From TrEMBL:
Residue ranges of domain ChlI/MoxR AAA lid in the record: 265-327
SUPFAM superfamilies attached to this UniProt entry: P-loop containing nucleoside triphosphate hydrolases (SSF52540)
Domain ATPase AAA-3 per the UniProt entry, residue ranges: 52-185
Any one Pfam family match given in the protein's UniProt record, by short name: AAA_3
GO molecular function: ATP binding; ATP hydrolysis activity
Protein name, per record: ATPase family associated with various cellular activities (AAA)
């Protein structure tokens, strides 16, 4: 869908559809998901902005259920790929097979893999070797796969949600920094507070969950992508996003001292782009007419936590990436002095 395809009237209707749809989305998700408000918000922001998401958390935290529910709300084709140590690239992208076409003739036919869906859940992506990880990440970047010299475009919209277990767990293969950068957000999903955990136990042991009702379509999502990019942002707000990302790079002018001590590799240009595009989507979902500083700040953690590499000194001192981002938000002013 081209940018010119949206008239002024269509764009106004789309904006209103998004604003009204937010509460309906949360209402549908509440049928199966309790709590996790920040996680849901970040997933929706990345979906509306057209980005991919990495979800980090221990097993058994309803990551698969959440992603499946989101796909149902948007009436999108869903596929789940369980990543294992023996998974091969062709198991994801598909492969060519020899078929009998009649008359004694045979031909090669491409059989599509599970990557050919609108929403792909790459479950436990860090349990498979780098070669297989790379096959998925290439498809994410190019929106196509290559088999036997032929290119096959993927379905649109195309949205990958990759879950990973904490890297200290046994049998994991950490994703390289360059590949991590292809994910718009790294969303942390943690155990629920006792009150919400009790609500989950009571709800899931007393009745079956109500079916999720579709609210939108794939065409709606493509229109949302175009509308998000048109959300106004003041130059000083965009400049703050750039300063925030640039301040994560050690040994640069204006870099805070704690970054020089605790960070060995900072975020690149894509981090600032993600902050701005994500903030536009967040503003639209919140019903705001333009991007605010708070939109940028709210997305700093999911944007930066997988793009900033801590030093050995930070690890030795028990400093986490969350600590670093918290200090960064305090150290970088929203306005230039």
């Amino acid at each position: 869908m081209s940018t010119e395809a949206l008239s002024v009237e269509e764009e106004a209707r789309t904006v209103e559809q998004i604003r009204e749809g937010r509460e309906r989305i949360y209402a549908e998700l509440s049928k199966t998901i309790i709590g996790q408000h920040d996680v849901i918000e970040q997933l929706l922001v990345s979906l509306f902005a057209g980005g991919h998401c990495l979800i980090t958390g221990a097993p058994g935290l309803a990551k698969t259920l959440l992603v499946r529910s989101v796909a149902q709300i948007f009436h999108l084709k869903f596929q789940r790929i369980q990543f294992t140590p023996d998974l091969m690239p062709a198991d994801i992208t598909g492969t060519e097979i020899l078929e009998d076409s009649g008359g004694g003739h045979r031909k090669m036919t491409f059989v599509k893999g599970p990557i050919f869906a609108n929403v792909v859940l790459a479950d436990e992506i860090n349990r498979t070797p780098p070669k297989t990880q790379a096959a998925l990440l290439e498809a994410m970047q190019e929106h196509q796969v290559t088999a036997a010299g032929r290119r096959y475009p993927l379905d649109e919209p195309f949205f990958v949600l990759a879950t990973q277990n904490p890297i200290e767990m046994e049998g994991t293969y950490p994703l390289p920094e360059a590949q991590l950068d292809r994910f718009m957000f790294n969303v942390l999903i943690d155990y629920l507070p006792p009150k919400d955990e009790l609500a989950v136990v009571m709800q899931t042991t007393s009745r079956r969950a109500e079916p999720i009702q579709p609210l939108f379509t794939g065409e709606d999502i493509l229109r949302f992508h175009e509308t998000v990019r048109r959300v106004p942002i003041a130059e000083e707000v965009g400049a703050y996003a750039v300063r925030l990302a640039a301040s994560t790079r050690p040994d640069r002018d204006q870099t805070p001292d704690f970054i020089n001590q605790w960070v060995s590799w900072g975020a690149g240009l894509r981090a600032a782009q993600t902050l701005v595009l994500g903030a536009k989507a967040r503003a639209l979902l919140s019903g705001n007419a333009h991007v605010r500083m708070d939109d940028i700040r709210a997305l700093a953690h999911p944007t930066l936590r997988h793009r900033v590499l801590l030093s050995y000194k930070a690890e030795a001192e028990g400093v986490t990436i969350e600590n670093v981002i918290d200090q960064l938000l305090q150290a970088v002013p929203t306005e230039m002095s």
